[in-house]
Amino acid sequence: MAFLIDRTLRAAARLAAGLATAAGLAFAPGAANAGEASLEYAVKANFLYKFGPFVDWPATAFATPSSPFTICVVGDDPFGSGLEEAVRGQTVAGHPVAVRRLAVVSGEAACHVIYLGRSRVQAPAEALKALRGAPVLTVTDERQGFSGGVVHFVLKDGRVRFGLDMDNARANGLTISSKLQGLAVALRRGSG
Amino acid sequence: MTAVGWRDRIGRQLSVTPAVAVGVALALLAVSLGLAVYNEHLGRAESVQRSRVQADILAASVAAPLAFDDTEAMREYLNALEANPAVEAAGAYDLQGRLAAEFRRAGPPPPAVNHLAAPESQAERLSVTAPVVQGTTRLGSVYLRVSTESVLRRALRYLGIGVVMVMASLLVAVLGSSAASLREAHRNLQDEIREREKAEEALRQAQKMEALGQLTGGVAHDFNNLLMVASSGLDLMNRTTDPARRERMAQSIRQAIDRGANLTQQLLAFARKTPLKTDVVDLAAQLEAMHDVLDRSLREDVAVRIEADDDLWPVEVDPAQFEVAILNIALNARDAMPNGGTITIRLKNLARQGGAADQVLVEISDTGIGMAPEAASRVFEPFFTTKGVGKGTGLGLSQVYGFVHASGGEVKVESELGRGTTISLALPRSEKAAAIAAPAPAVDESFAPGKRRVLLVEDDDRVAELVREMLIELGYDTIRTPTGAKAIEALDGSHAFDLVFSDMVMPGEISGMDLARRIAKERPHLPVVLTTGFSASAAAAAAEGMRLLVKPYRLETLAAELEAALGGANALH
Fold it and tell me: How far apart are CA B475 and CA B448, in angstroms?
């Protein structure tokens, strides 16, 4: 119970901080975009680990039952410390959640979720190509200016939503819960 | 006691006692009450379970929208609860327990902050919570509040059932008690019937005693008259030597004795103690043979005419009783014709239609003074008589009635004052052929039986002397013994006998019946004829098929019976 209250208080503080930031930004129109963006990425950071329960990775994706559920950010990191805050204390299917930041990815990257940011080192298309067939939930973001991940973040009516590419998911050996599919604003389901 | 006996007894107890019926009714009520409580409990548990399942389904549905903060999708899932009219309010909560989306139909809104708790029932409302979990990851919780059936409605429902049960119980109780009272009434009725039967028996006995009193007076008077005739006739016979006059006297004495015998016959017939020996009879021949008897019984100014159909059907009756009945009617007819007249006896076949048995009709009409309807309706009652005190016993026509009914027939009387009376006997037709009626045996004076030897067994000296005379008159040698034991001695002695003629009731250990049985066993070729004045003895002898002469008997009858017995014995040789 104490734990629950502790978490609740912490979450409340986080929200209050977020709102204060937003409110403060509202009085400074020049900085409005930055404030909205930080709230948007806080939401996206939350989503990144929440995809975990709705996706099944092949058994080979985890070395041991205690291996962490790893979320990787490739290229520029738009989350800052927000991602660490979001995943702190969370578990996915019993695995602790870990965050890694990478400059480049290869097929052997020990990541379960990879958020692709802009990168001058490795073009996103290349990264996606490298990850094709690997048991990784690739996430692209409309705001980053490219698509092609299994999950693709979009903004709709000012809210963060996502589309799903079932072909890519299947290619990567992932099974996505129908519940998650039901929430997707766009669902690509090819024949192949 | 057998198992069946016990079951019967238990069954009777159950069906009878009102207390048991009430007990059954109470038990019924208790059982239905118990069932109601159990049902209530079951229904509550079921309702909780149903709500939990609903909450779980809701939790599973909102897992993804809750995780990805899709309020619209959450609301869609929540609004789907509208299909269930029992759901009052529902809410989806994030991991921190804050309300994310709600559904509300009635009552207060879902709480702003949700805590997982056990189902809570509160005044017709049931609140349940369920965690929202995807895989092993907690995502939030849901809250669901359903309205349960109101206490009033539940009470009304149980009241309805209760009323039915109470009515059923009452019905059982009422049926039980009514069955008990019916049984009680039945028992009372049977008691009453028994009481009545006893009372009726007592009444009959009293009537019989009264009737006997009247009868004794009438019979004694009649007998005194007859004895007077016989006694004075004998006196007169002794004082005269004129053969014609003696002959007349003898005739009157004869008639007096015949009437006396008739009288006793009537009494016996009335008492129904004489065995009814039915025979297939041709009534025309029977009447023809009676003609002389009738003539002698009636006065000279009364003529008798007999008219019989040709091919008259036979009937099955006791011929002796038939003769007595005819004689009784004829005597009544004679008395109804003080100035003389004609008695007409008609014999007719009466073919009946429609399945009824054919009958032979015997109509006896007189030309006498007739009767008033009141009298005509009572003529068959015992002791009813129109004649003066001491002149009639009132038994004549009741013998007729008894005879006809015992023979399966009907009797009716038609009478008109001044025009005469007709009495009709309808006797059932017999399908058997009539035996050729033997004409009344006449005494053949010249018949010489060759001095056959008769052993006469009779305890009364005077009767023995008379019978001895009669036997001698009929040409038999006679030896008399006073008891059965002596008779056996005589039979074992040196004399050989052709026939034993024995009284039935005698002093000593061996009765006439015993004697006859013994002779039948030891000397089957020796014929035995029994005689008695006791009707009970006569019935016993008749039952064993023995030859029997009922006292008093006439010389001709004795002769015929003895000849028949000897003839039968000879035929056996």
Answer: 6
> How high is the ipTM of this complex?
0.73
B412 Cβ contact list (under 8 Å, min separation 6): B423, B424
> Mapping DSSP to helix (H, G, I), strand (E, B) and coil, where does residue B116 land?
coil
For residue B37, give the 3-state DSSP assignment. helix
Amino acid, res. B554: R
Q: A187 at the B interface (CB within 8 A)?
A: no
Query: CA nearest B74 in A: which residue?
Result: A183
Cβ atoms < 10 Å from Cβ of B154 = 17
DSSP state of B552: S
C-beta of residue B428 within 8 angstroms of C-beta of residue B407: yes
Query: In 3D, which of B318, B262, B257 has the Cα closest to residue B286?
Result: B318
Nearest CB to B97: which of A8, A177, A183? A8
Range in B197-201, B288-292, B317-321, B426-430 with the lowest mean pLDDT: B288-292
Where residue B218 falls among pLDDT bands split at 50, 70, 90? low
Q: What secondary structure, in 3-state letters, does B466-502 show?
A: HHHHHHHHCCEEEEEECCHHHHHHHHHCCCCCCEEEE
Using CA atoms of A14, A19, A25, A27 in order, give the dihedral in degrees to the nearest 10: -140
Q: Which residues of B touch A90 (CB under 8 A)?
A: 137
Hey, is the C-beta of B70 within 8 angstroms of any chain A C-beta?
yes
d(CA A184, CA B9): 82
Q: Which residues of chain B have a CB within 8 Å of the CB of A182?
A: 64, 73
Q: Is-contact B441 B469, C-beta < 8 A?
A: no
CB contact under 8 A, B136 and A177: no
Q: What does the angle CA B365 – CA B367 – CA B371 come to, to the nearest 5 degrees?
A: 85
User: Tokens 């009466």 identify what position?
Assistant: B350
H/E element, B126: strand B125-134
Cα–Cα nearest to B551, from B472, B485, B429, B466: B466
Q: Is the pLDDT of residue B507 over 50?
A: yes
CA–CA separation, B175 and B155 (whole Å): 29
B131 interface with A at CB cutoff 8 Å: no
Compute chain A's Rg from CA coordinates.
Answer: 17
One DSSP character per residue, A139-154 reads EEEGGGT---SSEEEE
